[in-house]
Write a sequence for this structure.
């Protein structure tokens, strides 16, 4: 199979066909296989397939409105975060988990799009309110997933001018 890392593109049009529970489990397994600073794993996941909730959450931002049958919301859990100045590593962990979901989605033949929430305070508040998150739970990304109804060509972003080789 083509390398899913290089094949991955943001997909914003999806078929209505639901994503199977088996596939959802694989996406979550991939998310939780991501590296984590000191292995604290301060990340929670919300799987949303309820039509009303999907719509409500999708309206939280201007660029999150595309219709998809599945959203995985990646949430930082500060109760599990590292102490003091290391606490912000939750952001890195949440990003690594988010990326793993996208790669696994591509490997499964699904389309996906990472929609950023953190650090946009208003969006974070809206999503927290809709899902009744605790005050130590910070919405990070909202990942739209479904069977794709558009197929953007893979693109290579490899640009050697951005790299310094110390040889
Ligand atoms: C942190 C982050 C936030 C993003 N937020 C959005 C978003 O709100 N809506 C959207 O349609 N795409 C969003 N994207 C997807 C980017 O627009 C997309 O990755 C970029 O245009 C490159 O295209 P590609 O993913 O197809 O390679 C986001 C991506 C990242 C990494």
């Amino acid at each position: 199979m083509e390398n899913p890392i290089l094949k991955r593109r943001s997909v914003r049009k999806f078929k209505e066909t639901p994503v199977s529970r088996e596939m959802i489990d694989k996406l979550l397994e991939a998310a939780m296989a991501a590296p984590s600073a000191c292995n604290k794993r301060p990340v929670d996941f919300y799987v949303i397939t309820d039509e009303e909730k999907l719509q409500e959450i999708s309206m939280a931002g201007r660029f999150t409105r595309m219709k998809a049958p599945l959203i995985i919301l990646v949430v930082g859990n500060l109760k599990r975060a590292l102490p003091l100045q290391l606490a912000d590593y939750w952001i890195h962990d949440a990003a690594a988990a988010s990326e793993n979901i996208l790669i696994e989605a591509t490997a499964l033949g699904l389309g996906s799009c990472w929609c950023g929430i953190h650090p946009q305070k208003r969006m974070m508040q809206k999503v927290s309110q809709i899902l009744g998150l605790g005050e130590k739970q910070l919405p990070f990304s909202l990942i739209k997933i479904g069977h794709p109804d558009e197929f953007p060509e893979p693109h290579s972003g490899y640009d050697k001018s951005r790299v310094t080789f110390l040889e």
About this structure: The first helix runs from residue 4 to 7. The beta strands are 43-48, 70-77, 111-116, 137-146.
